[in-house]
Amino acid sequence: MIKTFRIIALLEGISLLVLLLIAMPLKYIWDAPQMVSTVGMAHGVLFLMYVVFAIMVYSELKWVMKTLAIVMLASIIPFGTFYVEKKYLTV
To answer: Whole-prediction pTM value?
Structure first.
């Protein structure tokens, strides 16, 4: 389960960066909103999977509530999921 969560964390982080750094500028600067809907949907699904797996890993690794809060907060900060993957999920 931890390996799957690491992959989801990586993909969620990449999708957030693509959304913020590529799709949003395309929409607002060059008036091309198509990528936002595609990347946004993928990011939304990955975000939900990240939250569900974070809760499952929380119980499996017996994290304290503070660790779970940090992991959850990291999901909305650019590069946050990469930090979580490196700090809390590397064995």
So the answer is: 0.90
